[in-house]
Amino acid sequence: xxxxxxxxxxxxLRCTYCYYKESHAGRVKVMSDEVMEAAIxxxxxxxxxxxxxxLNITFFGGEPLLRFDAIKRGVEYAKKVVSETAPQGFVxxxxxxxxxxxxxxxxxxxxxxxxxxxFLSLDGSAERHNICRRQVNxxxxxxxxxxxxxxxxxTDVIVLAVITRDNIRGLCDSFRWLYAQxxxxxxxxxxxxxxxxxxxxxxxxAEYQKLAELWxxxxxxxxxxxxxxIHDKVKIAVEGSRYRLYSCHVYEGGLSVATDGxxxxxxxxxxxxxxxxxxxxxxxxxxxxxRANAVHEFVHNDKAACEGCAIRHRCTAHECACTSFYTTxxxxxxxxxxxxxxxxxxxxxxxxxxxxxxx
Length: 359
Prior knowledge:
Shape: globular
CATH class of one domain: Alpha Beta
Distance between the termini: 38 Å
Strand order of the largest sheet: 7-6-5-4-3-2-1-8-9
């Protein structure tokens, strides 16, 4: 089970692609300890009810490190609840999604001590990173992260790089730079804004091709290198699996909780409004199974629009609830932009798999 706690709506950056960029001024809500504790208690009970033995708690925002004290309280409360109520062998792990600009020695030491997994937003070198990831005053944010890079590479960190129409060219060079710093776990997410042109997708495809060749090179050399952009699609194809079993944790696999305690399927759905689309209840009353039915149907059924598509089970347009929702407004919708991207990337990943198999 995965529990995501949106500790705050506030953020100290103004990234150009942020899906809240038009509403930052009104995003001031924070999660109370009462809501946080109720969410943790519910997640433990639900994990046990589904006969699962592991609960992952991710602190999210906004920028969650704005509320580091709340993170510390949440960790202690979760360990207390698990020790008092969960069966023997039950494991709780912690993670944080952060832009890294508020890190300091105290925070890093705490994360190491509590075995946190850190999802770090970093797009590459200063020149690359500052294209999109900016401070409130418009200045780049790289210099705020740079002092911590040497320390972070020795923690359990996954780098999340966002691909936009503004930073396509040089993408592979960014990943090479990240690898050279010592980061061995890197993945990416595309800002599907509905405006990608055929020329821009072609340029992205050229960068993906270079990334695939880099991944193959590292694999053949026996180097440690998880490049999620390529690795995940290859893994799913080789194993005959699907994203909904591998990485999409809606319904039985996860709860995402807004500042007010409203429950949603995943992070991109989160809103501090109990009437928001796909709200599934509240931490004080539990999951409303009737309201969660649409998500349950999504998990267990293929989309009619994707019937017969050979790559549907490793395509985010078909498999990812978040991608479906934020690109089309519904779980059932399929974005032509995402569809075109996934067909292109799947073909490149298939070629990469062939290169691995023909050593």
